[in-house]
Write a structure and sequence with these properties.
Layout: E1 4-7, E2 20-23, H1 25-40, H2 46-55, E3 57-58
Antiparallel strand pairs: 1-2, 1-3
């Protein structure tokens, strides 16, 4: 299963937030939405959740040999 990443540094922010959230897509959308509401003053809405989902990236996994 491919893990997803939401990185607050990729969003405009007055407090220069550096939080990174990693997990399954649903976990990350849920956690990132809660973070956006509690820290950044956003309103929880289907539109916010869709914006977050659209901005997710796949986690890069480095293989050590």
């Amino acid at each position: 299963m491919m893990r997803k990443v939401a990185d607050c540094r990729e969003w405009p922010s007055e407090n220069n937030c550096s939080l990174v959230i990693t997990g399954t897509e649903d976990e990350v959308v849920r956690a990132a939405t809660e973070h956006a509401v509690s820290v950044h003053g956003e309103t929880d809405s289907p539109e916010l959740r869709e914006q977050i989902r659209a901005a997710l990236k796949e986690e890069l996994v480095l293989q050590h040999s």
